[in-house]
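Internal ticket #5521
Category: modeling
Description: The requester needs a full-assembly model to guide mutagenesis choices. All entity lines are attached below as received. Residue total reported by intake: 955.
Assigned to: D.W.
Attached entities:
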Amino acid sequence: MKKPISYIQSSLSTRLSLLIVIFSAAILVASLGFMFNVSSQAIRQEAISRATQSLESTALRVQGILDHVKVATDNTDWLITRHLDGPDSMFVYSSRILENNPDLNGCSIAFEPDFFKEKGRWFSAYSLNDHGTIKTTQEGNPYYEYFYMDWYQLCKLLDRPVWTEPFTDYNPEGIYSPEMITSYCKPIKDRDGNFIGTISVDLSLNWLSQTISAVKPYPNSYSIMIGRGGTYFVHPDTNKLFYQTIFTETLEHEDTALVSLGHAMQNGEEGMKQLKIDGEKCYVFYKPLGETGWSTAIVCPESDIFGSFNRMKISIMLAVGAGLLLLLLASIRIITRELKPLKLLASQAETIASGNFEKALPDSNRSDEIGQLSHSFKDMQHSLITYIDELKMTTAQKASIENELKVASDIQMSMLPRIFPAFPNRKDIDLYACMTPAKEVGGDLYDFFVQDERLYFCIGDVSGKGIPASLFMAVTRNLFRIVAQQGHSPAEIAQQINTILSHENDQNMFVTMFIGCADLRTGHLDYCNCGHNAPLLDNLFMDVKNTNFPLGVLEGASFVGESIDDIRDRQLLLYTDGLNEAENPQKKLFGEKRVIDTLNGAQNMDSKAIILMLQDAVERHRDGAVPNDDLTLLCLKVNKV
Amino acid sequence: MKKYILSFLFAIAVFPAVGQERFVFTPQWTAQAQFAGYYVAQEKGFYKEAGIDVAIVHPSVTQSAMARIRKGESHATTLQLCQALEIVDGGIPLVNILQTSMNNGMVIVSRWGKNPLTQKGERVGVWSAGFGQLARCMSLKDNLNYEWIPFSTNVTLFVTGAIDATLGMSYNEYYQIVQAGFPLTDKEVYRFCDHGYNVQEDGVYMTWDYYNNHKEQAKRFAEASRRGWEWAAKHREETLEIVMKYVKKDHIATNRVLQKLMLEETLRLQVDRESGKREFRLRPDMVKKATDLMVEYGMIRGTVPYEKLIDAVK
């Protein structure tokens, strides 16, 4: 199962073809379903119409004959009532009915027990049409007590004329005749309206059986007729005639549909029901037969009604199925052919992707989307080759620059004193400094040296970053060294450096600096702050009164120095803003408060330990963020010796 | 010579029926599963094995079973106990040689979904051929005063609504009504056996005259018939086949489904409620109950004692 699915997923043509076929199939199924439904309704309606017509004409014909019997009876019964004083005249009337109506089988004019005293308990004038010969007799006797017979009692008990349930005639020889007979029975009443007997006219129903059986609107359809008790009186299965009712089989095997049909027919309803008979789906159309209480039905197998329609339906479905299969195959073939250049393009693009940029793409004369794609690919290939060439060049240049930058960095770092302890032979100087550039080269600087028992030191931060700042830093550092070595005070050093830096300073670069000069013998400190962060002395920001301009900003600016009497045994920390403005990934600054908090309790630590501690604190604050500025720290403690 | 004597003795032993007069048995109704045991005894050769030559002749429209007995054309018939009591009371002494039913199967079925006990004064069908004695007693005893409408052989009066209720047998008319599309519930069916009228029904009877002259024959017939019923109870499908053979031969308007239901119900009624067994005996208490009821409500003139129906010395 996985293989076909992965094949479909990997093959655009198959996927597209399947989508087309599925979509087409959905449209076809919906259209055909609608068409089949409409056709099926029409056929069903046609079947109903045909069956109804057949039933109507049967019912009409039956009604006509039954009406004839009723008229024949009605024409006689008034004579009976008028001649109750002459019982023998009843033989005449019963035979006359048959003489006047040769299609009738028999006639009984029967009276209540002992009605005619002179005739005894039984008196029933019975005439029989025996193949054209009319025989008349008195039929009541101890063995045939007619007044218990259904034909006699029904109209008496119901007090109206009735048709008896059909029955097979019986003759005294004990031979059952297959002839089916019914009787039209009418109560005879005296002048006071009292029941005195029954006139019963027998009618052979063989014609009815034949008429109903002949109703055959479809080749395998058949007709049935049941009586009030559900007994089959017409049925193609002769074993069921008279012996079974429509409900018999339901006593053994529950069949609510059949029971429902039986009840509807018994209730004299007219209609149609769908049910399974002997395992076959059938439509049963039923209609009552006049006033008889009987009901006739036409059973039409669904396969008969919908036979040719179903065959046509199957043929259409097969044709549609085959069409869809052909559509699928054709779609796959056409789409595959149309997508062939795309496949070639994909394979060559793969070759290009593997690094073979010079691989020639196929020429395409097509102007459709695939042609445009091919042209775009060619353009892309050319652009790619050009780009790769440029990239190679740029990479080479970058490598060269990086190399140069490395050298520049080394040179820059070599300009700063980096060997600690800086004065291994002097116990009175505890100094440690470091500069960490944010990029390859930085714009921060520091420097220090001892001359004539004076320690000159400075820390600075050039505006901007990178190479321009580093060059400016190198110039500044050299100027500091040259000027300071001439024995000037920090303010004078600042004055001179500013003069040189600000002269023709086209780039408008400047540097903030803190320049100090400590007398190692007395601990006296002179200093000049040129726009730089105030240093910390014993973990407190120094109260610098004259901040001065940064160096290089204003040519001819004057610089004012300050001093502290004795800084011996005191801790002085100089730093650039790379310390207090160090940012973490959330752009939060390290802050001056944290600087003081970090240094808290560090009074007895040496300069190196303090610097390393601060570096570590900054590193942790950054939490992996790229350094946003150069970080330079210088810690000094002049010890009393 | 010895050879001939042995052959003669053998012939007597194996074919005792040879030379015997034919025993004609007439059930009280047309062929149906109600008489399955006798058909089985005939078809399986139980009568022959008992050494009697039995002919089963059903009554006809013009000749009832009792009419045949009276004329001597038949030697035994089946009768319900109440019927037998009525006949004995009417002056024809009868002896019960085999009792098959141990329970009463009579029912009243209502036409209109009513409880028959509420149908006071309404029209109730009853067999014109008899069998309604117990129901008549019940109608009087329970002050229902039904208007009895005799019917001949089927349930047409009931089906057409000409009567309000009908008497029937739980194995026959009851199923005919169900088969006519009436879905009966317990409410519409009054079963006599459940209301203090559990009086036995079918038994085989013959006149004392005939019995006294043919005791051995009667005894063999009763034993073989009982064997037939016992076999039928154990082989119901095969019994049904035999019943259908008789039914078809006489063109009876019935079917296999009805006959199957009738056979089951008939066999059920043969099991005594108290002992749970097929006892094949007439119960003195039931005879007394029947005679007391019938005397009380004027069905018979005087008590018919149990001993009058049974050969105590057999």
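Resolution: model delivered.
Comment from assignee: Residues 106-195 of chain B form a domain with the D-Maltodextrin-Binding Protein; domain 2 fold (CATH 3.40.190.10).
Ticket closed.
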